[in-house]
Amino acid sequence: MTSSFIKCTLTSVIFLLAKVDGTFLNKYVSSEINQNVQSSYSSRYDAMTQGIHNNDDIRPLKVGQNDTPSDDETVFFFVMFGIGAGFSMLIFIASCTVVLRFLFSRGRLILTNDTPGSLDDAALDEELDARVLQELSPNDQELYFQSKDFVKLNPPLTCDLTLSQSLTIQEKGVQAWEFKPNVACMEQIKVTNKTEINFMQDQQELSVQTNFPIPSENDVYYFETKLYDYPNNEESCSVSIGISTFPYPYFRLPGRQKWSICYDSTGSRRFCDPCPLSIKNGLVAFPKLQRGDVVGCGIRTHSRTIFWTRNGKRLSETKIGGHIRMPKHFKLYPTIGAIGKCKFQVNIGQMGYVFIEANVKRWGFGPLEGSETPPPMYTKFNKDVLLESSDLDPIDLNLRNGDFPPNFHETIATPAQFTDADLDDEDDITLRTIQEDRLGFFKKRLGKGIISRKTSSVSTSTSDLPPVHPPHYNDVLEQEQNEAVSITNQVVRQEGASVSRSMTEHLDTSENETSNF
Questions:
Q1: Residue 453, C-beta contacts closer than 8 angstroms, at least 6 positions apart
Q2: What SUPFAM superfamilies does the record point to (predicted)?
Q3: Model-level pTM greater than 0.90?
Q4: Which of 5, 25, 155, 230 has its CB 3.0 to 4.6 Å from that of 291, i.e. a possible disulfide?
Q5: pLDDT tens across 44-67, in order?
Q6: C-alpha closest to that of 297 among 209, 221, 195, 213
Q7: Residue 421 falls in which region: left (phi positive, over 0), alpha (psi -120 to 50) or beta
Q8: Residue range 217-261, pLDDT digits in tens
Q9: Quick one: which of 227, 232, 261, 191 has its CA closest to 354?
């Protein structure tokens, strides 16, 4: 398609040049003929003077007059020819550029819908499955195929953050990020202070991820993980620190499944490969990890390349093929995994990094403080006002009688009365004695109004006893409504009587006036 386009373009350019410059070519041909004719006439004249008459060699030609081109026409011809040649060259260069871009871009065609950039994902998956069946143990094979099913049922997230999540990050800043273990492994993984991770299992692969992905606004983002408590024995504990998509199988270490990369405690860099590694694929590419080491992992958002640091120094990856590039349309999350008991402390920007460049360029996940206002101090009372009374007028307290029990304002002000007998008997009252003597206690109190315990007794009047059926608030409201209705009816009757009295007086006066008339 591109070659035919180039041919058509060149043909049209040549046709235009021939159309424009055809007259000038004819004039140049005529000028050449005129020169030949003049030379033939001169040769004939010389032959006649010498007496040589050879009519076969000398043939006169008819030549038109005024066929020699002028200097202006010659200059114009060369100018047009140069413009046409330059235009043709530009078209040729543009066509070559388009062809080269088309040829080089064909290597990034997506043949399947799984990943960008791979030529045949199905074939690569089949090859990896064959390697797993050949190189891994039955238990590892089962974990691998279980994780594949997990990824199929829970595809990686590609959508942006929701509005509520964005507002949370804006309000809390870097404090919005925290590691949240899966519900199935809450007892095996404990997270304190949002970024302090404690693995408490012995021989099981587990991993934990953050609640929010790595941002993409800045050029670089970076986080560090300190091995706070880690046994140096490789057989008892294994650690993997890296980045993966979300959700990642919680029963697998990062770097073992698709679109995950990690730095193993053995010193290997692992990328989407559960099988044993080779030196070319990252086996022992980095130093081995020990207790107290700080592993840093950074990502460049534009190229999606991953780089590593250890104890504040950048690690080289030239011997194993350079930096790994992650897919651009997936959201990536910090992922920490371990086999065995160990503790980690992750720094995503809430404190200073060991890697100095990250501090200078501010590669943290977010600002230290968000837009959320802190709660007021308990000791600050300069602007507080203590009211001596409520804003409600005491005259209007009758409107709120339904909000309180009957005789509330009278009984609430009654002080408590104690006697020596109460104080002496107070030590003998327990929960068991109350439960055992509850029925008899209330029967005596309600029937006689007297409470006797051992040798001391307290005499109370029946008026102090609580009612058997205390009134309900709704009953009080209904009573008030009935009173209001009765008052309204009484007012209406009084107004009706006054109106009828005035009407009778008016009729009497009118009758007297008519009789007098």
A1: 425, 428
A2: Concanavalin A-like lectins/glucanases (SSF49899)
A3: no
A4: 230
A5: 545 544 544 444 444 444 444 445
A6: 221
A7: alpha
A8: 999 999 999 999 988 777 779 999 999 999 999 999 999 999 999
A9: 227
